[in-house]
Specification:
217 residues; alpha/beta; TIM Barrel; four-stranded parallel sheet; 42% helix
Length: 217
């Protein structure tokens, strides 16, 4: 399948060049979590289907005034439809999920398909991915993204897995469209405890590493 229309622009993701993935067993206040991340300069937030009861959280966060909230670990078309109905601003998959891409493209919702090899990157773009999540990026480092962009200079690559404030700038320098932060910015224990000040501090440190690249765009 090839997308019939250009992939939608994910907005704040490409302006801020950062996405925060929240993998927590419990999120006591999703609005406060989004505010905490936005206070630190990260306005694109990915909840995941690994969090119990994520759909009600999505409904609560939909239309948040300071954050674009989507959902990740989307594996099936039914999950994709349910997430969009709940108000997800974007969908993320851990690997190539054609059925998820079909639902997202038909609904005009940005989808970031997971890929690792050059063949998978090409297929993700053909399926209409707004960005291609390279996972696990930390295994091979920023140089791998630079290599992928050789044959695919038009690809918007989103490295995920092993990305932190210490190496985020290296991934952007290698050509990443944005970078994905996980537990280094959003520790599950801090989320469960509602330690929003800690999350803001970590998001601010992550954002500071990206500042020179944000000015370029």
């Amino acid at each position: 399948m090839t997308a019939s229309a250009p992939a939608p622009d994910p907005g704040a993701l490409f302006r801020d060049r950062a996405l925060a993935v929240v993998r927590a067993e419990r999120i006591p206040d999703v609005a406060a979590l989004c505010h905490a991340l936005a206070d630190g300069g990260v306005r694109t937030v990915e909840l995941t289907f690994t969090t119990p009861g994520v759909l009600p959280l999505l409904e609560e966060a939909a239309g948040h005034p300071r954050a674009e909230v989507g959902v990740g670990t989307v594996l099936t078309a039914d999950q994709a439809k349910a997430a969009i109905d709940a108000g997800a601003s974007f969908l993320v998959t851990p690997g190539l999920r054609r059925a998820v891409a079909q639902v997202a493209v038909a609904a005009g919702v940005p989808v970031y398909l997971g890929a690792f090899t050059p063949t998978e990157v090409a297929e993700a773009m053909d399926l209409g991915a707004s960005a291609v999540k390279i996972f696990p990026a930390g295994r091979l480092g920023p140089g791998y993204l630079r290599d992928l962009l050789g044959p695919y200079p038009q690809a918007r690559l989103l490295p995920s897995g092993g990305v932190s404030a210490d190496n985020a700038a290296e991934f952007l320098a290698a050509g990443a469209a944005a970078v994905c932060a996980g537990t280094s910015v959003v520790p599950p224990a801090a989320v469960a405890a509602g330690d929003w000040s800690l999350i803001t501090a970590r998001a601010r440190a992550f954002s500071a590493a990206l500042t020179p690249f944000r000015k370029e765009r």
